Amino acid sequence: MRIYIDMDGVIANFDKAAKEGEWKHRPDLHVNYRNLEVINGAIESLAKLNADHEIFIASTPPWTRPEVWGHKKEWLEEHFPYLKRKLILTHRKDLLIGDILIDDSKYRGQPDFKGSWFWFNKDWDNRNWKACLEYVNNLNEKYEKV
Questions:
Q1: What is the pLDDT of residue 105?
Q2: Structural domain harbouring 84
Q3: pLDDT of residue 4
Q4: Which CATH number covers residue 101?
Q5: CA atoms of 19 and 21, how far apart (whole Å)
């Protein structure tokens, strides 16, 4: 399967950096994207997904800060070097063609994605990497039966 994975809030801990920065409005215009922490479970989970599927990172950078585009690439090369040439920057995730989109937002076309959308939201009881891998495995089994 082809799987697109969002960066901020799914594999990179944007929320923690935003809270530490004390910015009241638009933390995306201030956060140092190069220094974001990796979200718990992301390294192992992406390695598992990459072993069996074609995965890409689909991220929406702040367009008014072009330096962030490079910071996201550098961050990905450091933490997920096997994905360094699989970064897609877009504000229109509904235009991606694939089987699954894993994303924590619903404001960039995610609900209109033509495949299955896993909403990796802030409800950590059922929206975490363990739950996400179960979702992908169940969907994969369903596709294999067809």
A1: 86
A2: 2-145
A3: 98
A4: 3.40.50.1000
A5: 5
pLDDT at 127: 59
Structure tokens at 105: 């937002």
Mapping DSSP onto H, E and C, the string for the chain reads CEEEECCECCCECHHHHHHHHCCCCCHHHCCCHHHCCECCCHHHHHHHHHHHCEEEEEECCCCCCCHHHHHHHHHHHHHCHHHCCCEEECCCHHHCCCCEEEECCCCCCHHHCCCEEEECCCCCCCCCHHHHHHHHHHHHHHHHHC
Domain count, the chain: 1
Nearest to 10, CA basis, from 139, 101, 138, 114: 101
pLDDT mean for each 10 residues of the chain (146 residues): 96 91 86 94 96 97 93 97 96 95 88 91 70 91 78
Query: What Cα–Cα distance (Å) separates residue 139 from each residue in 49, 55, 66, 106, 111?
Result: 13, 15, 36, 21, 17
d(CA 41, CA 129): 6
φ/ψ of residue 142, rounded to 5: -65, -45
- pTM for this structure? 0.92
Q: What is the pLDDT of residue 121?
A: 73
